[in-house]
Amino acid sequence: MSSSLFRRLVAAAIALLVVTLVSLNYALSPVDPGIRAHVLEITVVAALAAAAVALLVSRTLTARVRRLKRAAEGLLGPEAQPGVLTDPGDDLGSLERSLVGVGQELRGLVSNLRFESARREAILTGMAEGVLAVDPELKVTFCNQALLSATGFRGRYEGVGLLQVVRDPALYELIRSVRASGEPGKLRFHLFANIPRTFEAQATPLAMPSGRGVITIFHDITDLERLEQVRKDFVANVSHELRTPLAGIIGYSDTLLDGALDDTENRRKFVEIIRANAVRLGSIAADLLVLSELESGADQETELVSVRAVLEDGLLTVEAEARDRGVRLIREEMQDLHVAGSRLRLEQAFLNLLANAIKFNRPDGEVRVRITLEDGRVAVRVADTGVGIPSQDLPRIFERFYRVDKARSRQVGGTGLGLSIVRHVIERMNGTVTVESQVGKGTTFQVLLPSVGRASGPQPTSTLAAQ
Ligand code: ADP
């Protein structure tokens, strides 16, 4: 109870007492003065006793109301204790009981809300996607770690202008229009803060107490975009690679049909060109098929393979061509080591390396091969004395269709897919392939593969012991 109310009650009681005494005095005027004084005395004492009782009751009530007020104010505070209130059976007691009940419910609700908001914050903070929320003034209210790292923004972001955190006018425009229209929107844009990356931003209106804000999710699509580009380039490259031999076949067929069939001197040459182009088409198709099988993982069989036997088979296959080109094949150390994988694929990889070492060699050149054990791994080296590869081309030679000298590669029947196949085969056997080269001096390819103990037979490569 407030003290002003208490003062008013006291004033009213005094006024009532004065009026009562005056009325009594007037009413008792005919009575004997001794008796009148006695009655008035009794009245004053009774009034004072009543006032004392009223004061006591009002003090108690004041204390209870104050406690109720404090309890109501502290309902959501961390130290609010249920059940601290007294519980008499009067109306105030029933109000106290309701307050205790409401307090418990409110605390439950608030703790649920706190848990839910902490959970959401943890999810948003830990998300791989960037998340950014802005208020109706386009001031940032939330920005998760993923987006902060991508933008390179440091320091407190709350209340900072959108453009200061993500410096992209197109994104600003998107978020501004989503806030104005209430319609979600999408945008693909680049961020150059740390490493250049491409994002797809999805902005959605967000109802806030102060009006309409916007929440934006940023998907990092850099890898996806690169893959898209690789796929487009690949399709373009395949079309281009097929077009050249096809043009040759069509061109020379037309020449023959247009009368060259009677040209006894040249017709055989034309047919040979048509055949060479058809063979080239066949080689491209075969290599593409191998690559697609390797990538799809269709070719899964694993066997214990003798690296020496496979390399010897490869050397035997290319022997005639090496002789024709005047290139000597030299076997250096040929240890008998074993690996786990597909024998057929490994032979194909070695054949590609050997064929290149011969094709890109010089007359009277050499190809040296050796098999050794290096740090528990089987190392196969194919070194030639050929034209070499310029250092700027080295990082790209394992790419599909990449050729240093296109004309020379075509002339020697290359498809540009050989090294790509080598890398796929070796990597699928948990190995690596590296290259070193010096222009005009020669090139060395080195393949490293996990070694497998011969007696143990085929096993999963991850559990194989080194020899
Ligand atoms: P290709 O069918 O043209 O040989 P590859 O994928 O096998 O395709 O090789 C890609 C390119 O790498 C070749 O065109 C050639 O320019 C270069 N290259 C590969 N091996 C050698 C080598 N031993 N010496 C010189 N250049 C090589």
Name the features.
467 residues, alpha+beta, Beta-Lactamase, Helix Hairpins, 5-stranded antiparallel sheet, 5-stranded mixed sheet, 12 strands, disordered C terminus, binds adenosine-5'-diphosphate
Task: Write a structural description.
With 467 residues, this protein is an alpha+beta fold. It has 4 domains: 3-73; 127-220, Beta-Lactamase (2-Layer Sandwich), CATH 3.30.450; 224-296, Signal transduction histidine kinase, dimerisation/phosphotransfer (DHp) domain (Helix Hairpins), CATH 1.10.287; 303-464, Heat Shock Protein 90. The protein is built from 12 helices and 12 strands. A 5-stranded antiparallel β-sheet has the order 2-1-5-4-3, with helices on both faces. A hairpin with a 5-residue loop joins strand 1 and strand 2 (140-143). The chain is rod-shaped. Mean pLDDT is 86; it is low at 455-467. Adenosine-5'-diphosphate binds next to helix 10 and helix 12.
How would you concisely characterize the structure shown here?
This protein has helices spanning 3-27, 33-73, 91-126, 145-151, 162-165, 169-181, 222-257, 267-296, 307-325, 343-359, 406-411, 418-428, and strands at residues 130-134, 140-143, 185-191, 197-208, 211-220, 303-306, 328-334, 338-341, 366-374, 377-384, 432-438, 442-450.
Helical content class: 40-55%
Shape: rod-shaped
SSE pattern, N- to C-terminal: HHHEEHHHEEEHHEHEEHEEHHEE
Distance between the termini: 93 Å
Q: Under the CATH scheme, which class of the largest domain?
A: Alpha Beta
Segments where pLDDT lies below 50 for 5+ residues? Answer: 455-467
CATH topology of the largest domain: Heat Shock Protein 90
Count of extended strands: 12
Indicate the CATH architecture of the largest domain: 2-Layer Sandwich
**What class would the helix/strand composition place it in?**
alpha+beta
Count of helical regions: 12
Ions and ligands = adenosine-5'-diphosphate
Strand content: 15-25%
Round the Cα radius of gyration to an integer and report it: 47 Å
Major sheet characteristics: 5 strands, antiparallel
Strand order in the sheet with the most strands: 2-1-5-4-3
Total separate domains: 4
Classified in CATH, the superfamily of the largest domain is Histidine kinase-like ATPase, C-terminal domain
Mean pLDDT, to the nearest integer, reads 86
